[in-house]
Amino acid sequence: MIRWWISSFQLAELFISSVVHLLYGFYVYSTAVAADLSQALSECVFKSNVSLEVKKQDPSKSTVDDLPPIVLVHGIFGFGKGKFGSFSYFGGAEKKDERVLVPDLGSLTSIYDRARELFYYLKGGRVDYGEQHSKTCGHSRFGRIYEQAHYPQWDEDHPIHFVGHSAGAQVVRVLQQMLADKAFEGYENTSENWVLSIAALSGAFNGTTRTYLDGMLPEDGQNMKPLCLLQLCRLGVIIYDWLDIPLLKAYYNFGFDHFNLSWRKAGLWGLVDCLLGNAGPWATGDWILPDLTIQGSIKLNSNLQTFPNTFYFSYATKRTRKILGVTVPSGILGIHPMLFIRVLQMSLYRYPTDVPPPYKGYRDEDWQDNDGALNTISMTHPRLPIEHPSCSIVNDSDCQPLQPGIWYYKIVEADHIFFILNRERAGVQFDLMYDNIFERCRKHIFRKTSQTLPNEAP
């Protein structure tokens, strides 16, 4: 009887979670479509006026191309410029600076694959996932072609600022390690110094217990439960990619094109194989959820360094508080409806006692504070399997002048999507957050060797 009640509760929770996520996805999609239709209508009505406009180059802005670009890297289920029409993943934050790039990477592809895509987005050319990795993970070695590089001069003398949200922060760290390891064929001169700074917004550095709530098995952090939210997501993605409807794929793409899931290449039997879990990224584990488990993050982090010439900053978000020693959501109105249930579940989560803990010294109480998607302890700085140099601050000014090679982190009262998608929801905090990030990139971060103080000889 007790088991029946537990199973009924789990099915009810799965149904509610599925409906909430589906409705929110539909809301974002419909909002983007509505905005594009409105813009198209306006352009059509006022076409005659627009055609008379003559845009002149402002000579005062001729040095914009000389600025190091600030690259905004989206997280899971995210999208970059060119997808979802005029809808912005970063809530329009890219308009705050004249030299900002917003790449569109695979929204569910692995951290490794996304790091490779980000490199070729900036340098141009055809995405090369690497021969060995591609064979191991069962996909094509080469991906999309970037005919026009977004920053072709990128090198040690022309480094870049990166701002990553959620899994996007880990993507940038993997990319920097690849640069240090000279992992890109044909580019033997890469180094970690191609990255000037990394700012993480709710960065997924050490994994999250939410992956286990959504369906990843805590035993290994690689496989999924037979019935869970992630299984439903997997089925939906397979069907979406197999149908391969050009209009839909142009509007939003999960990023699995290099797995050849389309009906044109996979055929009917290929679809059946994917649905049964015998083929595709879910069969080889080459997708993003295994990277977001605690075990997967430890595996990634074991090969990642914090480099002495790069500046690091992290904003860790939290929507919980303690009442009589119990961690609970910090409110109802301040947490997005899609995340409220997860904030509660994550604050109450207990790692199964019948399986080995994800690392020696793991304690449930350390992982209870969260923002509905990630645990706050995971977002401050890389700490597993070894802790990287870090410094907690309250105000951004506390860390001036900045020192490279240290993770400065600040805990912010916000949920996981507070500073993306909906600018109005965050209000003044949105502007304060991104203004601080962009100002730091432009005014406070520089390589000491390239700087000369006023009235001082080089």
- CATH C-level class of the domain at 71-210 and 294-444 is Alpha Beta
- Tell me which CATH architecture of the domain at 71-210 and 294-444 applies here: 3-Layer(aba) Sandwich
- Largest sheet, if any? 7 strands, parallel
Helix share, percent = 25-40%
| Beta fraction | 5-15%
- Total number of helical segments? 16
How far apart the termini lie comes to: 80 Å
The structural class is alpha/beta
Q: Runs with pLDDT <50, length 5+? A: 50-62, 449-458
Name the CATH superfamily assignment of the domain at 71-210 and 294-444.
Alpha/Beta hydrolase fold, catalytic domain
Structural Rg = 22 Å
Topology of this protein?
Layout: H1 2-45, H2 47-51, E1 70-73, E2 100-101, H3 111-123, E3 125-128, H4 131-137, E4 142-146, E5 160-165, H5 167-180, E6 195-201, H6 210-214, H7 229-243, H8 246-251, H9 263-275, H10 281-284, H11 288-292, H12 294-301, E7 311-318, E8 320-323, E9 326-329, H13 337-348, H14 376-379, E10 390-392, E11 407-413, H15 423-426, H16 428-444
Parallel strand pairs: 1-2, 1-5, 5-6, 6-7, 7-11, 10-11
Antiparallel strand pairs: 3-4, 8-9
Helix pairs in contact: 3-5, 7-9
Walk me through what this model shows.
The chain has 458 residues and is an alpha/beta fold. It has a domain of 291 residues: Alpha/Beta hydrolase fold, catalytic domain (Rossmann fold, 3-Layer(aba) Sandwich), CATH 3.40.50. The strands form three sheets. The protein has a seven-stranded parallel sheet with strand order 2-1-5-6-7-11-10, with helices on both faces. β8 and β9 form a beta hairpin. α3 packs across α5 and α7 runs antiparallel to α9. The chain starts with a helix and ends in a 14-residue tail after the last helix. The C terminus is likely disordered. It is found in: Secreted.
